[in-house]
Amino acid sequence: MCHPGWEGKYCQQEIDECLSLPCKNNATCTDLLDDYKCLCSPGWTGVDCAQDVNECDSGPCLNGAQCIQSDIPGEFFCTCPPFFTGLSCDLPYDPCDSLHNPCLHNSTCLTQSNGTASCRCPAGE
Q: Which residue has the higher pLDDT, 73 or 57?
């Protein structure tokens, strides 16, 4: 009769609990004495890495942006409010700055309250 975690004729062989593949979703299993530990892939949690993490629970979207949980584990999307951009809506955005200005032919760019731009043509054109 062997102590827990051991097997063999003389109880000389430590049981590899990872052989039963207890870790789910491409997690890495580490064998311990009479136990195992799973290192979960991004987007997964729990003892066996079987629970999908809701990335929106951590509040990753900034400046009042709405977080949308992706169907792909480990991913989320932010819907940015006007005047913000970036993956987490952390970057200021001006639709009329020199990088984004859509207005041509000497027209004037006007930033709208909803974060979009409109163009005012020069008089007579």
A: 57
